[in-house]
Amino acid sequence: MDELDKGLDISLHGKFARQAARKVRDTVSSWGLRLPDVEPLVLDFGLGEFEKTGEVEFWIANENEAGYCGKFLFVFPGQTCPKHMHKKKLETFFIVKGKVSMDYAGKERVMETGDVLRVETGIIHSFTGIEPTLLLEVSKPSIIADNYFENTRIPIGGKFRSS
Question: Hey, what domains does the chain have and what are their CATH numbers?
Answer without folding.
Answer: 3-149 (2.60.120.10)
